[in-house]
Write a structure and sequence with these properties.
Keywords: Membrane, Transmembrane, Transmembrane helix. The structure is a single chain. With 161 residues, this protein is an alpha+beta fold. The protein has a domain of 97 residues. It is 63% helix and 17% strand. The protein has four helices and four strands, in the order H-E-E-E-E-H-H-H. The protein has a two-stranded antiparallel ribbon. Strands 3-4 form a two-stranded antiparallel ribbon. Strand 1 and strand 2 form a beta hairpin. Helix 2 packs across helix 3 and helix 3 packs antiparallel against helix 4. The longest helix has 41 residues. The protein is flat.
């Protein structure tokens, strides 16, 4: 079995990318998505026939929000990384902390976006940021836990030799 942590993290990120961009019904990658307000949508073909401000946007833009990633990652770093103590336990705690940081930022984003004046574009953006907070928290948490598991396995292997 592969013990290289770079391979494992790369594999995790590859599976996340496949989950985001793969259309399993047609077995093809989807790189663009129509945005706007759709009036006539066909669920079977996943096509919007008429609506307002319909634009084709690259899907990668929906999953990149540097400010959200910086805040969730920053809260995780400030709340869980110390210079003393067991590094494996620190990474395991940081994994849980990252998920909590994603949840707290999602809650803050929800309060911010959903207590203002109702606007469809604002609601769409709000949902995007709220769920990106969850996504970033969980991705950071999974990567930290993978590193902790790798270090723990290496430590157990070295102890058995």
């Amino acid at each position: 079995m592969y013990r290289n942590i770079n391979f494992r993290i790369g594999g995790i990120l590859l599976l996340v990318i496949i989950a985001v961009f793969m259309n399993w019904r047609d077995l093809e990658f989807v790189w663009y998505q129509t945005t706007g307000t759709c009036d006539d949508y066909d669920w079977f073909t996943n096509t919007c026939y008429s609506g307002e401000k319909l634009l084709k946007q690259p899907m990668v833009l929906f999953f990149l929000d540097p400010a959200t990633f910086f805040i969730v990652g920053g809260i995780t770093f400030l709340g869980s990384f110390y210079t003393k103590g067991d590094k494996i336990l620190m990474l395991e705690r940081a994994s849980h902390f990252a998920k909590d940081a994603g949840q707290i930022f999602a809650a803050v984003g929800a309060v911010y976006f959903f207590t203002g004046v109702f606007n469809e574009a604002q609601m769409a953006r709000g949902f995007g940021i709220v769920f990106l907070s969850y996504l970033y928290g969980h991705i950071i948490g999974i990567i930290l836990l993978a590193i902790a598991n790798y270090l723990k396995t290496r430590e157990e292997y070295e102890a058995s030799q």
